Structures are given as C-alpha cells and as structure tokens.
Amino acid sequence: PGNYRTQLWDKQSESFLPSTPGLGMHVEVKDPDGKVVLSRQYGSEGRFTFTSHTPGEHQICLHSNSTRMALFAGGKLRVHLDIQVGEHTNNYPEIAAKDKLTELQLRARQLLDQVEQIQKEQNYQRVRRGL
Questions:
Q1: Secondary structure (3-state) at 131
Q2: What's the CA gap between 2 and 17, in Å, rounded?
Q3: How many CA atoms lie within 13 A of 116 on its CB side?
Q4: For the chain, which residues make up each domain, given as ranges?
Q5: How far is the C-alpha of 78 from the C-alpha of 84, rounded, in Å?
Q6: pLDDT (tens digit, 9 = 90+) per residue, 26-84?
Q7: Strand partners, 86
Q8: Where would you find this protein in the cell (predicted)?
C-alpha cells in the first residue's frame, strides 16, 4: 500500500499549505516489465494498493491532472509519499473478521504470508544479482 498527501504553494504566506479536495491526482504503477499494474484517479490525498507477481524495481508515478490549480500555486506541488511493502501491510484483525477465522487459522494465514514474502524477497535478490 501507499499513502500520499499533497500541498500547494501559497504565494501570500510563502509556504506549502494543504491542497484543496478538488485537486486531482493520478497514480500509475508499472512492474519491471513495464506492465501497468495500477492506473487510477484519486483526490488531493489518498491510499492506493497494488499486487505484483513480478520481482524487481517498480515505477510509481503520481501526477496532477489539475493544471489550473498547479498554475494558481505558481506550479509548486509537494507530495508526501509513504510506501509500505511486505507481509506486515496486511490488516489481520480485518481479515479475521471478514473471513470468520479462528485464532489458530489466523496465525496459519500469517505464517503462510510470511513464507510467501520470504520467497518473493529471495526471487528479487536473485533478479538483482542476475542469477
């Protein structure tokens, strides 16, 4: 998952202020093969998630579709971006409630996710080393 929020430059105060909700941001994510795994329109702040089965470097591109607002702000837009990767990003209490899992079933799910994450990281390291 990724979280972001934007700020527009304010000429009067000469500082970045929170963007208005009307600002549109487009988020696009490409896998190492250049295949688009996410392409979606969001607001001035948002949360996006994507799943990729290809190990390697991914491209995340955020751009504003509101040129009018960017020009009004003197063309300055600040984006705060928080990217989380791996098994720890899963909300297990939410998964347990949704799937009606027992504590033991939930722990098994967590362990399987950890194994899968380790395999993904090993594959990624192999790709990086060119093996």
A1: coil
A2: 21
A3: 14
A4: 2-83
A5: 20
A6: 999 998 889 999 999 998 888 888 877 777 788 999 888 766 555 555 667 888 998 87
A7: none
A8: Endoplasmic reticulum membrane; Membrane
Pairwise CA distance, residues 123 & 131, whole Å: 9
Give me the residue label for tokens 């295949």: 35
Q: Which amino acid is at 108?
A: A
* Residue closest to 53 by CA, chosen among 103, 127, 129: 127
CA distance linking residue 52 with residue 116, whole number of Å: 13
The overall longest dimension of the chain from CA atoms, in Å, is 58
Q: Are the CB atoms for 117 and 86 separated by under 8 Å?
A: yes
Quote the tokens at residue 56.
Answer: 């390697």
User: Model pTM greater than 0.70?
Assistant: no
86 or 38, higher pLDDT: 38
Residue with tokens 């993904």: 120
Distances (CA, A) of 7 to 22, 56, 74, 80: 12, 31, 12, 8
Residues 6+ apart with CB under 8 A from 93: none
